Amino acid sequence: MTISIRELLKQKEFWAFLFILGMALLNWPLLSLAENESEIFGVPSVLAYITIVWLMIIALAYLFDRGYSG
Amino acid sequence: MIGSHIALVVMVLYLLLLFWIAHYAIRLRAAGRSIVSNPYVYVLSICVYVSAWTFYGSIGRAASSGLEFIPIYLGPTLAMILGWSLVRKMVRASKEFRLTSISDFLSFRYGRSYSIGAIVAVASLAMTAPYVALQLIAISTSLDVLSGMHMVLGMEIETTLLVAILLGIFAATFGARQLDPMDRHEGLIAAVAFESVVKLVAFILVGIYVTYGLFGGYGDILNGISSMAASNPDYAKLTQVDYIPWFSITLISFFAVLLLPRQFHVIAVENSDESHIRKAMWLFPLYLLLINLFVPAIAWGGLILGTPGPSDAYIITIPYAHGQDLLALFVFIGGVSAASAMILVSSVAVGTMMLNDLEMPYLLRRIGGGRDLPGLLLNARRLNILLVVAVGYLYSLVAAYQSLADIGIVSFIGASQLAPAALLGLYWKRGSREGAIAGLVSGFVLWFYTALVPILAETGQISGSILISGPLGIAFLRPTALFGMNLDIWTHATFWTLFVNCTLYVLVSLMSRPSPEEVKLTDSFIDIQDSTADLVSAERTIEVGTVDELESTLARYIGTDKAKSAVDTELARLTTTRERIDATQLLRLWGQFEKILTGSVGSSATKMIVEESINVTPVREAAQATKPRYDLRPAAAYIVPGKAYEVFTDQITHGVEGLCITRLDPDEVRKRWGFKETPIIRLSHEKGGTMYISPTNLPLLFVTIKSFVETSKNSIVLIDSTEYLVKENTGLVPEREVLDFVYQIEQLSKKTRMLLSERPEFVHKKLDSDANEVKELIFTLGPLSVYLFEVFSSAMLSGLNETTRKDVVEEVNAQISCGEFFEGSHSERSSGDNAASVEKDNGEQTAACDPDMAEASKPEGSHDEIKVLPGLALTRREFFVAVRKLARVIKKHDPEFNLQVAVGDLLKSFGRSPYEISLVPGITYVIEEEKPTRSLEIFSELVNHGMDGLCLSRYNPETLSDRYNIPASTVVWLTQKSNSEYRTVDPTNFPRVSTIISEFLQKASYPVILLEGLGYLITQSNYETVLRFIQSQRDDIALKNAIMLVHIDPLSLDTKELHRLESEMEPLEV
User: Fold this and answer.
1) Which range marks the domain in which residue A55 is found?
2) Is the whole model's pTM more than 0.90, yes or no?
3) Is residue B230 less than 8 Å (CB to CB) from chain A?
4) How many structural domains compose chain A?
């Protein structure tokens, strides 16, 4: 069994999944988990959480673009 | 305070800079180095999503409800996740079918439906209005901050109006430059991309300034907010998330980023390469992240600092309050950038939509495609663009009290109504037109009710009681709490509109049965990823024949040059030429033609144009056993004054298939003459059914007749009448078009019996029987010969410079009014009063020709055009004489003028050889060449273009026919052998040759004689005899106004002999 991120990124189903995952991560209830009084580097945890998810989406898309050959 | 006009001036300068950038980009593209077809520019253009809302509204939102500004950007980020699947599919479908807007997209998907296109176009105007209003308010607020009240021209003008006017003019000039068949706007995109950079830079600069300049970093701000939150619970919720609105806003922004008119335009319509989408998938979310990075900082920083004024404007008021004038100005420009980009793209997109999907089909019905259509369309587009800005301005007056972010959300919810029909429609084949209409209409109605009505109630436009107790007192129909649902206003609206919209879309689609055409369209639309097959409806039989017809129809809508180049490109792509194109390629060309037209005028308009082709199937009425009363040749044109219908009926009741084109009422015709099945087409401006053609729609009329003739083996066409057609088209349609039509009818008469029912007064030929055969329609009917002269004269005058032209025209006009220009300058031959009117004319003319009087009576405006006397009619001979006279006058003023060059193409398009113009009737010409190739070629060309020819040659007629395409019937073989097949004559028998020539001249109406083989004649007898023969023939030719071409091989004679021969004749340069 070979695990290839590139292959994963090429699947249409992956992106559909990621979309749903993104919707879930950025909404209640998962979002509410990040909503507490703590702070990361002085930034409210909620903001930090959103920013991290946002950046991860960007990163995945970037990898897809870079690795695209077809 | 920045000087009161400086901000305004800077704004105008900035807009001018954008013009320059656009101009530069267009120039680069013309040089082949497009800067716009690159992925980064593509991404930057998508960033037009970020408008003044981000600059002002987001900050206002962040300052009042905290993190609620974020979901507006999360939606698009999530949308980009589906970039390679959903977005790419949308883009591919749009490009494949040359769709120009979201309304075009939806209209096309659901069977090219006019209603859907129109609904979406109007709805787009409605949903764009709040958004445009937002921009105007934002800009004018910041303008006010920077410069106070405005005194323009000594009057106080409300800032918003000023901004609206400025941006409206900018958009109209910028956005509608030409009706490009591809509908991509290179300059627009370049400008928008530039603006995206400017706004990002501005935002980051001010963000850095606030965070690190006024505070000690982000942490500082956040600490400040927390401490404020500790003392005031209002501030605590700034870092809290309100989940329900969060979700609904994410959802509607997801829809909005794809379906807002401007978004669809930059993402799909302006896309030049699918691979750019991959860049957009990560770059666009990155841009959004960066531009939002400092929003909390500025918003909360402003709160902490206690900056005065609305929080919407913090981004300007903070630097301004701290004396940073330059930064404030730059931020202002950033905001202007954001707003103008949005207004620009939106107004162009919506303006185009309104034109293509709402107004154009209506215009088509009314005008039927006459006039200068491309010019008209362009102006209509500009007006529409202004309309969009105007409506936005009006909305801003209504909604002035709202927070900017709220104004924008209204727009987003509107855009979301397109989602079920557009997005589900991309995947679900069962989605039908009726379902889409049901969903769209219900969605928009509810949107109006739940989102716009509350606003109108708040501002007092309608009674506020509706919010409290519902319409007509029905409490559970309250616009903000339908059926008792209690949510924030936006989630409430989002839920109800989308719920009802989707449900109706699905249900009604399931209930309806789409037409087979719609099914086919849908299949190819949805399967667009799987195949790049051409969408060619194979069922359409090739009714419209040639490439030229296609091109001329196309030319009506996009202009002749564009049409020509588009057709040429397609022909090259199909690797064929106009002459060699075969049936399959023609079908393909048809498919492309539809796409090109769609790209220019939208899909529902194209459908109308394409489907307008009327289907006439030839049908036989009863075939009687008797012989028909009128004996007509199967392929000829006849003028039938008065008895046209009788003749027609006589023929069709004897087995001929007929087509009747009339201006009378078809039912009456049927009743009176007893046609049952024969198709009758009425010439009328009404659209009363399928068998009506507007008399100004000559191409359609011709195409219909032609398809009828081509599909029938034995046909007859009745046209009642050409006079009517000419009259109806006067002033509306260029003369050239009318001439082309008549000429093509003349050509068609070679394949059918063409009956023209005309009044004798309209015809310049003696009509002595019921059915008079006629060969040259243009010189026989009405003012057509004059049109022809006008067309030729303008072609000849067009190459001259201003002054020469004026001189020529003056001289010609003077000659015309003296009756000296046209050979028989008498009016149309009316029956009795010819003598009287000529005398009267002469009387007037002599008065005008009196030198003293002539000066005084020179008509006004005689300097611009040649004024032909009304009622004039020219025979072919008179026509050519007039053209040559004009040429002589021109040559007097401009010796470089070459008649053949000026009118050669024109002649060819009317089926004449260009040589005809150089050959003056009555002259004998000598052509000197070693072998008679050119002589024979010219003769062949002239004969095949309608002249009556006689060729005396020593070549075998079979050779002549094979090699030079000279009809054997025109050849008389100079040989001593006798031959039963061909006409021969003994070359020594000059009297016989003479007789042959004179017999020919008696019968021929437009004769040309080629005498080839002079050398042979000389060797067979002697030089003197031949010379005498030539001399006598020359006189005969001159008398009979014929043309003779004599070929000589100059090397076969000595100089003196050659000179003597030459002196008898005119040399013809070949």
Assistant:
1) 5-69
2) no
3) no
4) 1
